[in-house]
Description:
The complex is a heterodimer. In chain A, helix 1 crosses helix 11, helix 3 (about 70-100) packs parallel to helix 6 (about 140-165) and helix 4 packs across helix 6 (about 140-165). Chain A folds into two domains: about 1-55, no CATH class; about 70-270, MetI-like fold, CATH 1.10.3720. Mean pLDDT of chain A is about 90; it is low at about 40-45. Chain A is globular and about 75 Å long. Chain A has helices at about 1-35, 55-60, 70-100, 105-120, 120-135, 140-165, 170-175, 180-210, 215-220, 225-230, 240-260, 260-270. Chain A is mainly alpha-helical. Chain A contains twelve helices and no strands. By secondary structure, chain B is mostly helical. Chain B has two domains: about 1-40, no CATH class; about 60-295, MetI-like (MetI-like fold, Orthogonal Bundle). Chain B has 14 helices and two strands. The model of chain B is unreliable at about 1-5 (pLDDT under 50). The interface between A and B is large, with 98 and 100 residues.
Amino acid sequence: xxxxxxxxxxxxxxxxxxxxxxxxxxxxxxxxxxxxxxxxxxxxxxxxxxxxxxxxxxxxxxxxxxxxxxxxxxxxxxxxxxxxxxxxxxxxxxxxxxxxxxxxxxxxxxxxxxxxxxxxxxxxxxxxxxxxxxxxxxxxxxxxxxxxxxxxxxxxxxxxxxxxxxxxxxxxxxxxxxxxxxxxxxxxxxxxxxxxxxxxxxxxxxxxxxxxxxxxxxxxxxxxxxxxxxxxxxxxxxxxxxxxxxxxxxxxxxxxxxxxxxxxxxxxxxxxxxx
Amino acid sequence: xxxxxxxxxxxxxxxxxxxxxxxxxxxxxxxxxxxxxxxxxxxxxxxxxxxxxxxxxxxxxxxxxxxxxxxxxxxxxxxxxxxxxxxxxxxxxxxxxxxxxxxxxxxxxxxxxxxxxxxxxxxxxxxxxxxxxxxxxxxxxxxxxxxxxxxxxxxxxxxxxxxxxxxxxxxxxxxxxxxxxxxxxxxxxxxxxxxxxxxxxxxxxxxxxxxxxxxxxxxxxxxxxxxxxxxxxxxxxxxxxxxxxxxxxxxxxxxxxxxxxxxxxxxxxxxxxxxxxxxxxxxxxxxxxxxxxxx
Lengths: 275, 295
C-alpha cells in the first residue's frame, strides 16, 4: 500500500516537473527554431519540409547586411568586461576591508553597502542623468561604464563579504605576526582562498550588466547602443534574424549561469540562502 | 592576546587602501545623487516650463501633484495588482515545483538546469520573445490555439488581458528563482526529521504542514521581499511589451516615472515619485537586514 502511494507521488512529481520544464524551455526552443527557419515555404505550409538554414547567423555577422550586430556586440562586450573588471578590483579590496579590518562604524558601513543594491535604481538614476548632461558623459561608453560600476559594486562587495568571512582568522593573523603588510596579506594569503568565489561573483555581476536595459536606455541614446537595446527596438518583437541575434546574446549567459548553478541561489538572495 | 589585537587593529593607511576607493565611488555616484534627488523632488525642475535647468524650491508641490492625480493612483493600483498576482503565483508554483523536484529520484540536475535558463536571459529580451510569440496575427501561441480548435486571443491589444500577459512573462522568467531557492531550502532540512516523523505515523500532509512549511518560513519571507521589491520596479517588460498601453492598462508606476522624466522632462515630479517608491521600499529593506544579520 505504502509502495503504491510512493509510486503515485513520484509519477505525479515527474508530471509536474516535466510540464514546468516544457513551459520554461518553450520560448528558448522557439528562439532556436526561428533562428534556423528559412521562412520560405516552397509548397503549401503543410507539405513543405523544414530545411534548417544558418544563413541568418551569417547575415548578422556580415557588415552592411542591414541586420549586422557587430558594433552592438562589441559595445556590449567592452562595457561589460571593463566595468566588471573595475568592480572586481574595488569590490574585492572593499569586501576584504569590511571583513578583516577592525574599525569604528564597520557594521553600519557594511549595511550601507548592501542597502544601495536594494534601493530602487530610479532614485539615483535621475540625478545621475542630470549630472551626465552637465558633464557630457551622457551617451558615452565611459559614462555607461561608470554607471555600471556604481550599480554593480555594492552587489559584488556584498557577495564577496561572505567568501572573505569564511577564511579562518588564524591564517590571516599568523601572516600578520610574520610581518606581512595588509596589502601583501590580502594578495598572497586571502585572495587565493576566495578565487572560486571571485569567479562566480564576477560571472553573476557580468550577467546583470550584460542583460541590463534600464541604465542603457536612459543614459545612452545614439552613440552607444548595447545589445539589449538594439535587439528590442523592433516594434513587432523578434524576427528570424532577431532570434539568431537573441540567441547569440543569450547563449553565453545561459552557459555562464549553468556553470555557477550551485551558487546561483546564494547570489540571487544576497547570501541569505545557501544553495 | 592584547598584543595580537593590537596587531590586527586596522591602521588608517589600510583603511585608505581597502575601503576608500569603494566608498568614494558609492558616495559620489549613489549617496550624493540620492540626496540631490531628494532636493530636486522639492523643486520645480521642468524643461517643459523652464528654459534653464535651475532648481526652484517649491516645497511639497510635486508630492501634492502626485497624490492629487488620479492617473498616478491608477498607476499604483495597476502595479499592486500585477505585483500581488505575480508574487502569489511565483510563490505557489515555485513551491509546488520545488516539492515535485525534491521527490523525483532521478534527473533533478537536468530539470534544475532547464529551470535556471530563463533567469539568465535579459528581461528586455524575454519581453521581446513573448511579444513575438503572442502576436495577434502570426504569433505561435494563437496559431497553436487555432490548431487546437480554440479562438485566438488579442493578447497585446486587449486592456483586460494585458496584465495577465505580464504575469505569464514574469512567471516564465522568475518562477525559477522561487523554485531554486525553495529547493535549496527543502534540501537543507535534515533527513532524520522526516524519518522520525514518518515513524511516528505522521501523514505526508501532516509532515508538510507541521515540519516542512515552518522550516521554510524564513526562505519564504526572503523570496517575498527580494521578489516584491523587484516586481514593484518592473520596467523593462513595460518598455518592450506595451509602452504602458493599450490605453493606460499597463502603466506601471516605474513607467509613469519614466514618462515624467524622459518624455516630459519634469525632473521634479519624477524625483518625487522615485522618493515615494524608495520610502515605500525602506521598511522591506530594513526587514531584510534582519535575515542578513542573523546570517
